[in-house]
Amino acid sequence: MNDAFKALADPTRRQIIRLLRDQNLTAGEIAEHFQISKPSISHHLNLLKQAGLVSDERKGQNIVYSLHTTVMEDVLGWMFSIVGKQDQEENK
């Protein structure tokens, strides 16, 4: 889970997650949304993959990236459990 939080700490990677939430994309399609180099996008994608937040699949000459929703659900579930505990403590 620590790798997921480290990966989500960067605004570029959070934006990539938002893009993949809507549809699966190639690295080139993701790069079109940013004004940074393609190698930088590749670096961000690799960090997201290492954290388990995205997965990739080769389709012909392209690699298509998709959001790994199970890991995202785990991260969000953990975050909501912390928020829920704080709310309960404040209401005591």
Summarize this entry quickly.
The protein has 92 residues and is of the alpha+beta class. The protein has helices spanning 2-8, 11-22, 27-31, 38-50, 69-90; strands at residues 25-26, 54-59, 62-67.
What's the CATH superfamily, by name? Winged helix-like DNA-binding domain superfamily/Winged helix DNA-binding domain
Task: State which percent range the strand residues make up.
Answer: 15-25%
Derived from helix and strand composition plus strand pairing, the structural class reads alpha+beta
Largest beta-sheet characterization: 3 strands, antiparallel
Shape: globular
Q: Please give the radius of gyration in angstroms.
A: 15 Å
How widely separated are the two ends?
30 Å
- The helix tally amounts to 5
Reading side by side through the largest sheet, how are the strands ordered?
1-3-2
Q: What string, H for helix and E for strand, traces the elements in order? A: HHEHHEEH
What are the main properties of this structure?
alpha+beta, 15% strand, 3-stranded antiparallel beta sheet, WH_DNA-bd_sf, 64% helix, DNA-binding transcription factor activity, 5 helices, 92 residues, DNA binding
Structure description:
The chain contains five helices and three strands. It is an alpha+beta fold and 92 residues long. The chain has a single domain, classed as Winged helix-like DNA-binding domain superfamily/Winged helix DNA-binding domain (Arc Repressor Mutant, subunit A), CATH 1.10.10.10. The chain has a three-stranded antiparallel β-sheet with strand order 1-3-2. Strand 2 and strand 3 form a beta hairpin. Helix 1 packs antiparallel against helix 4. It is globular and about 45 Å long. The relative contact order is 0.17. InterPro entries: ArsR-like_HTH, HTH_ArsR_DNA-bd_dom, HTH_MetalResp_TranReg, SdpR-like_repress, WH-like_DNA-bd_sf, WH_DNA-bd_sf. This is ArsR family transcriptional regulator. Keywords: DNA-binding, Transcription, Transcription regulation. Pfam families: HTH_5.
